[in-house]
Structures
1.
Amino acid sequence: MIPYAADIDRLPPYPLDLDDGQRERVDRLLSGVVVSLHDHPVRLPDPITPESWAEHTRVGTEHIGHAGLNGSGLTIVLASSLVEPDQDRLLRWADQMRAGLAVSATGPRLLPALEDLGSIGTDLDGIPALYAAGIRSSGLAYNAGNPLGGGLGQPVDEGLTPLGRQAVGVMNQLGMLVDLAHVGDRTSIEAAAASSEPVVISHAGARARWPSPRMKPDDVLRAVAATSGVIGVEAAPGSTRVEGRPEHDLDAVMAHVEYIAELVGVDHVGLGPDTFFGDHAGLYAAAGWAPQPVPGHEGVPLPDHVAGMENPAEAPRNAAGWLVRRGWADADIAKILGGNAERVLGTVLR
């Protein structure tokens, strides 16, 4: 039997150094609406090795971190699958997630979501099938692109295809959120313009703060905000760094929150931590995934974890504490924690 990571107290609490009044503010804020636009709220094998990951994948059973989620303050989590090209496997995953949600009625509402629509190929009838299975958000394309449009890992993004434009229309009509997190820059701008509903970047950051293709340039951030959409700032190891700072930690992640809020307004910023319960960096190694190198920063090592934003349970509390400590107003913190995302979900979902 595969051992799995704990979803409570796997690592020591992050030291926020708040006084009693600040802690009371954080607790009050977390009693409101708190939304993660992108997380993997499941427990990873522990230890995670190529062998344990292969066995976990073969068995195909997800272990939702109910105990951790129940104490997180989260209200809604867009619970994402990993990239999966097989439509039938994705439909089985969605069924399993729905069954897992029935275990606990006290935790956050989990909405199944996809990294991309690569599993449908060129058959747009696959989108209603995913929606019928309970999936309420999907990226259009992943890094390498697909028949719908360009991915952020391609040297040339040729933009949203006619089929991609139709896919956006189908998603709008169904009430499925259009996510541009892994989509190329040109395709992102064109998809935002094509959508009749708000779109999101569920998990990324600002390229102005860290020059990675995985981050988004200002024109893409503005295009999403122009739809009344939201940018969820992520915290996967190695993603939302800050140029000139060696650490990837809570301070670095929140620097992206601050930048995006200043660029497009606080009404368009949220959280999409992109975390697991378990060793995220270890998953990269076990699965043989290599994060894209950042031009000019190829030698920067991948951190073991992002201190303060390591898992789905601690991320919203520590983000709230950081914003309180920095003097943000409660009304703006509440928007970032979940108010903005709730507005978009309420507009788009049927």
Note: The two ends are 40 Å apart (CA to CA).
2.
Amino acid sequence: MRLSQYFLPVLKETPAEATIASHRYMLRAGMVRQQSAGIYAWLPLGFRVLRKIEQIVREEQDKAGAVEMLMPTIQSAELWRETGRYDAYGPEMLRIKDRSDRDMLYGPTNEDMITDIFRSYVRSYKMLPKMLYHIQWKFRDERRPRFGVMRGREFLMKDTYSFDVTKEDAVKSYYKMFVAYLNTFDRLGLKAIPVKADTGPIGGDLSHEFVILADTGESEVFCHKDLLDMNAPGNVDFAGDLSAHVDSRTSLYAAADEMHDATAFAALPEDKQMSARGIEVGHIFYFGDKYSAPMNANVMGPDGKEHAVQMGSYGIGVSRLVGGIIEASHDEDGIIWPKSVAPFGVGIINLKTDNEDTDKVCETLYAALAKAGIDPLYDDSNDRGGVKFSRMDLIGLPYAITVGPRGVAEGVVEIKTRATGERQKLSPEAAIKFLTAEFAA
């Protein structure tokens, strides 16, 4: 993409309402624009990141055996009345009426609707287990929306729902999704810590939050230091026994319900204690027949009797992750994107546009990197060099190539690695080989 053809409304000043890093940088880098309290338009740069995160989430769900579908944002209140949640959910639910005066709502979650879909088609245990998911916009009318997309009212969420005959099978599905989440966050370049959690309005008796560490985290996390050194499970045989993949982590859980009670934390050796601030980016639940029983979502079991299906739900805040990644990875100059979700792989800075020599080198680099699938952003503007450097640091691309008349005369370009600040001078051909190898790793 050429910057001259792109839409990148970068701001020089930090908006007064932005108090945390992700909010500041998302506004300054032209990723989002606030349309009303807690509701944002996703501008091209932010939208590219959002879609990359969404695709990684999708791939890991598919790998775990979940099947994608799409449910509507507007739901009938009748389904929620069947489960008793319509009146119990609270003012966060946006309740509306259609032109026929029917009670409707903008869905904050989908347990009730997916249970209705399931009961319409599945009658026998032979059709189980099943995991269904969608990635859809949701709305929760937060009392105090703040921190940009971290605590907005409208947000993009991946929610998966599992269906099993027995509790034993349902717990297996739960841990299958547990592992899928660890793999997902690992691919996003995040160190996510699973923490025992309160089930809240979703319900159930087994739940974990996945939190990433950041100074601006909304909750205090107490955990074993070794959790930070553990790798994600990688390519797991989801047909096998998953307990071994989570046992080592489970033994290290030290946070109590809601992550505020440090009782379990006090029992750890002092040199293994760690407390920090955390941002929730995922939450998983096993809740049995909380929804299937009142909605008569029953299946015929192998014993010839009807059983209320055992369910779980599993959410990841896709749009929230954009802010979470920035909170975990930035410096005073701007964002530092992991390669897996960066809006562009490499920025090309032409220090003297309309110069035959620098233009030629930039065009060669641009064509070669695009052909290699690295997706470069070519700054072909007439702005001063300092403006170009600051803008590239702000938007946080993993690498920047600077092409200037002096370097071209010497046969070199300069590559800057955003995460480390390291600079190296290479020939254009060597630069292409270096970057191709970096993105192939």
Note: The chain has a mean pLDDT of 89.
